[in-house]
Amino acid sequence: MTPEADDAFAQQLQELRREYLADSPKRVAELRELGARLAGGDSTALADCRQAFHRLAGSGGSYGFPLVSERSREGEQLLQRLASAGSDLTPDDISAIAACIAGVAGAFSQAVEAFRAPGGAKDD
User: Fold this and answer.
1) Is the alpha carbon torsion for 112, 24, 53, 9 positive or negative?
2) Chain-centre distance of CA 32, in angstroms?
3) Cβ(87)–Cβ(94) below 8 Å
4) C-alpha–C-alpha distance, residues 94 and 45, integer Å
5) What's the angle, vertex CA 10, arms to CA 7 and CA 59, rounded to 5?
6) Distance spanning both ends of the chain, measured CA to CA
7) Crossing angle for the helix pair 91-116 and 3-22, nearest 10 degrees?
8) Distance CA 40, CA 38 (A)
9) Tens digits of per-residue pLDDT, 15-28?
10) Which architecture characterizes domain 3-116 according to CATH?
């Protein structure tokens, strides 16, 4: 690639990353809504919540935000274990799910701050 092509590619990648982060409040709101459904006793939300974590686990890394992926994967694995157990969710389970959602929200917040920092576009 030429230096100009490298610059254009880097700019396109930065724009995609910016758009991804701009949509992060919607993604976190979806997780919170699913968590609220689970807390309210809606066991059908378990699969939807696991799938939402799964999507973020993949997309976070694809967009260069590994902490988003890591926190999302933790939530996905928790939901998978809970689904495999096949029992009703306990208050401790609901708290653990809420903690995972908070972890994803925090990872997005860190990514946004790092992205906005001068010269910073990393998610450490």
Assistant:
1) negative
2) 11
3) no
4) 12
5) 170
6) 28
7) 140
8) 5
9) 999 999 999 999 99
10) Up-down Bundle (1.20)
* CA 37, 27, 74, 57 torsion-angle sign: positive
pLDDT in tens, 105-116: 999 999 999 888
**And the tokens for 89?**
């969710």
| Residue 73: both structure tokens together | 């994967």
Question: What's the CA gap between 113 and 123, in Å, rounded?
Answer: 9
From the number of C-beta atoms within 10 Å of its C-beta (0-12, 13-18, 19+), residue 39 rates as middle
Distance between CA atoms of residues 62 and 41, nearest Å:
33
In sequence order, what are the residues at sequence separation of 6 or more whose Cβ sits closer than 8 angstroms to the Cβ of residue 122?
64, 114
Phi, psi at 67, each rounded to 5°:
-70, -35
Q: At what angle do helices 45-62 and 66-85 cross, to 10 degrees?
A: 160
Number of C-beta neighbours around residue 55 at 10 A = 14
Task: Please give the model's pTM, rounded to 2 decimal places.
Answer: 0.87
Task: Please report how the helices 66-85 and 91-116 are oriented relative to each other, as an axis angle in degrees rounded to 10.
Answer: 170
